[in-house]
Amino acid sequence: MKEEFLGYERSKGKVGIRNKIAVISSVVCVNQITQQIANKVDDAVAITHPLGCGQFGPDYNNTLRTLVGLGSNPNIYGVIVVGLGCENLKSRVLAKNIQRSKKPVEFFDVQDLKGGSIAAIKHGIKLGNQMREEANTLKRESFDFSNLVLGLECGGSDSISGISANPTVGLISDRVVELGGTSILPEFTEWIGTEHLLVKRAINKDVADKIYATIYGFIEHLKRLGIDFLGVQPTPGNIEGGLSTIEEKSLGNIAKSGKSPIQGILEYSEAPKSNGLHLMNEPGLDIESMTGLAAAGAQVILMTTGRGSPCGNPVAPVIKLCGNPKTCEWMGNNIDIDASVIIKGEKSIEELAEVLWVKIKSIMNGQKTQAEKLGFNDIAIWRNTTYPFHYMHRK
After folding, report:
1. What's the pTM value of the predicted model, to 2 decimals?
2. Among 1, 127, 279, 312, which is least packed, fewest CB within 10 Å?
């Protein structure tokens, strides 16, 4: 039987599982205006951030690429870009780049409207309601899983995650890849100690070299700064959860990627150019990581959490799994899949993967995640230009 889901057809062969309107700030100064516009438009989300002013060079390019990626995500029907007018990251530039995705895009600057903030909010609401009417005319259609980009995330990891929720996600990742889809594993600092396992799965020497370069370049950079990475990883929360070494944490993390061949390494928020499993440069900061995954085109994100996490994403639904019985009890309203049944001996990893697969298809077909029900939409852009080591080939 062919595996399919119900989604919204977009241009350029993309498929969305949500039909949202995105209101995006080009600069921090208009965040409150952006938020108030989104609050008054049905199924609209505000994408706000503390950047956009005084940025240049790689830092500017990284922010631009990320915001363009978020606006271009297939889950977004149309975009309204709100600018101030005097910032480096111009609303016009951001809007023109998002328009390459062939979706409806409008933009304006507050300084150009007589009446300031009040006029801008009214104008933005008018544009948003017009887009909403257009978006409501679309109907869901059937698509196969080759159209899916799946994000793989973990946060608040404990000693149970790596033997329960994470390998369950790994089976799902492999299944998506086998069906012709795409899967992305970020969090490069949590590959340390497992690089010898990852390079065996690289499709060629170039990919293997980039895996080594990412990890060893980062470690060498920190050494030059006089920083011992082992002093900050595992985190205090990881240690309290029973993780003892970075290698133990990394083994759990890469379990989410299953056993599929690694096609390449993406820069932060870069969209993959081919299907299959990809790695992404991002240092394991949960919200920054999920922002990068959504900007890379992920329509849905699987997040495993041992100690519990409430965060979500405004663009891509976040499905949370937890293998810790206590966390599932205490933070049950934040958890979509109780993976503690594995630890309790009630289900095998393979059996739970089937439960998760059914859940994923339900979410893709319109069912809301716990984070969506709670209205949790978190955005943070990783400023990765602080790490000048990417793709530095190992000698």
Report:
1. 0.93
2. 1
